[in-house]
Amino acid sequence: MPIDRDFLLNWVMDPVVESYTDREPLFYALSLGLGADPLDAGQLRFVYEKGLSAFPTMPVVMCQPTGWAVDPRAGLNYRMMLHGEQGLVVHRPLPVSGRLRGDTRVVEVIDKGEGRGALLYLERQITDAASGVLYATVKGTVFARADGGFGGPSGPSRDVHAIPAGEPDAVIDMPTLPQSALLYRLNGDRNPIHADPEAAQSAKFPQPILHGMCTYGVAAHAILKQFCNYDPVALRELDVRFSAPMFPGETVSVALWKRGAIVSFRARIKSRDATVLDNGRAVLAG
Asked: Peroxisomal multifunctional enzyme type 2-like N-terminal domain spans which residues (predicted)?
């Protein structure tokens, strides 16, 4: 069954309403590796309830829709789908506890052609469930590898952010724990390829892989550490492409180029000569 583009673009998904306490922001930050230095006051503000702030990328794990990819009306081969890109616009910081609503929609479907797959652009608005105040816009691109050639438009595709020429202004090495994926999956993504060696091997990985969204948060940590003195309101936007898997326990080197309020970044695993995040773009306050 081919993709039904008209259905996807007009699909009104059920909103996801979620209540949370300070436990969720504490755990989210810990799952990214914050708190590794217990004497660092900057990190402590995200992992200790005294003066607690939610880490700025936390909206990406809140009010996530479930089951949409397996709905037969969509016509997607969900087993062949990959997370290609991730974006976030922070309109105002999340409170450390509250009740949120997430409204997700498919904003475009691009047909790359028979045998080349399709791109689905999704957008999720995170608002206060009672007042409707907008906290964040979460953007994502899904690469449906097996679903090209359905007769849809071939563009326009989203622009790719270009990394500046020359040496980076800084390179920050960010270690992860061997159990990082086991921790991060408790934020909501319990895909077994992040925990079960057999499931990972069936997906052609030698071992369970780290969530791309965890690597995304680790890169945000590097940016806040290097340029923002861990200011929780400094990060306004964060966009990136996922280019290769990362394994729990690896150290990721985040290269950073700062041009005014724009930070470009790329993340690599030096030991494997592998780029895991590319074309990264962050916008800082002020």
From this structure: 19-145
